[in-house]
Design brief:
Blueprint: H1 3-34, E1 38-40, E2 45-46, E3 51-53, E4 60-62, E5 67-68, E6 73-75, E7 81-83, E8 88-89, E9 94-96, E10 101-103, E11 108-109, E12 114-115, E13 118-120, E14 134-136, E15 139-141, E16 146-147, E17 152-153, E18 158-159, E19 164-165, E20 170-171, E21 179-182, E22 187-191
Parallel strand pairs: 1-4, 2-5, 3-6, 4-7, 5-8, 6-9, 7-10, 8-11, 9-12, 10-15, 11-16, 12-17, 15-18, 16-19, 17-20, 19-21
Antiparallel strand pairs: 13-14, 21-22
C-alpha cells in the first residue's frame, strides 16, 4: 500500500474513532440526565471515563460550568453529593456520598484525591471488620478552596472558605477559613492574608 494511501486510511480510522467517542459521550450525558436522582446543569463538562452513579440511593447535584475530568468517580452509596458552580475535579479523584458531601463554588480539586464521608467501625476485636458497620459523617468543602494533588478528606471535616490543602495531605480535622494546611495528618502552615 502506498504511503499516501496509508495516511488516508489512518485519517479515516481516527475520524471514525473520534465520532464514536463523541457519540458515546452524548449517550452517557443523556443517560445521566434521565436519572431523576441526578441534577446536572447542561454546562457541566465530563469525559467518557467520568463515572456518576447513585448507588444504593442518594442524590447528586452538579452546578453550572463545573468540569469532571478523566476517571473522576462520583458515587453516592446512599448519601447525597452536591458540587457547586465553576468547580474543577481533576483526573482520578473519587468523591463518595455515604454521609453526605457538599462542595461549594469555585473549588479546585487536583488529581487522585479521595473524599470519604464514612469510616469503618473496628471497636470489637471479636468481630470481623466487615461486619461492624460504618459511621457516617458529612464533609463540607466551602467556596474558593484548592485541594492539591493526592489528598484524602476524611469523614466529619469542614474545610473553610478560601483555604488551601497542600499536596498529599490527610485532612482528618476541620480547617479554618483562609488557612493553608498540609501534612499527614494536617497541621496549620499559615493564615492566608489579603
Amino acid at each position: 500500500m502506498a504511503v499516501g494511501m496509508k495516511r488516508i486510511v489512518k485519517k479515516i480510522i481516527v475520524n471514525l474513532y473520534q465520532i464514536k467517542m463523541r457519540f458515546d459521550l452524548k449517550v452517557k450525558i443523556w443517560a445521566i440526565q434521565m436519572n431523576p436522582n441526578i441534577e446536572m446543569d447542561k454546562s457541566v463538562r465530563i469525559t467518557n471515563s467520568t463515572l456518576i452513579e447513585t448507588r444504593f440511593g442518594g442524590k447528586i447535584k452538579i452546578g453550572k460550568n463545573t468540569e469532571l475530568l478523566e476517571d473522576v468517580k462520583i458515587l453516592t452509596y446512599g448519601g447525597n453529593i452536591e458540587i457547586g458552580e465553576n468547580c474543577s475535579i481533576n483526573p482520578g479523584t473519587i468523591i463518595y456520598g455515604h454521609g453526605n458531601t457538599r462542595i461549594g463554588d469555585h473549588v479546585l480539586i487536583a488529581g487522585h484525591c479521595m473524599i470519604i464521608p464514612a469510616n469503618h467501625i473496628f471497636k470489637d476485636i471479636e468481630k470481623n471488620i466487615d461486619g461492624q458497620g460504618i459511621e457516617l459523617e458529612a464533609i463540607q468543602i466551602s467556596d474558593n478552596v484548592w485541594v492539591a494533588h493526592g489528598c484524602s478528606i476524611m469523614a466529619g471535616v469542614t474545610i473553610g472558605k478560601g483555604s488551601v490543602v497542600a499536596a498529599g495531605s490527610v485532612v482528618n480535622e476541620s480547617v479554618p477559613e483562609f488557612t493553608l494546611v498540609g501534612g499527614v495528618p494536617i497541621k496549620i502552615i499559615k493564615t492566608i492574608n489579603k
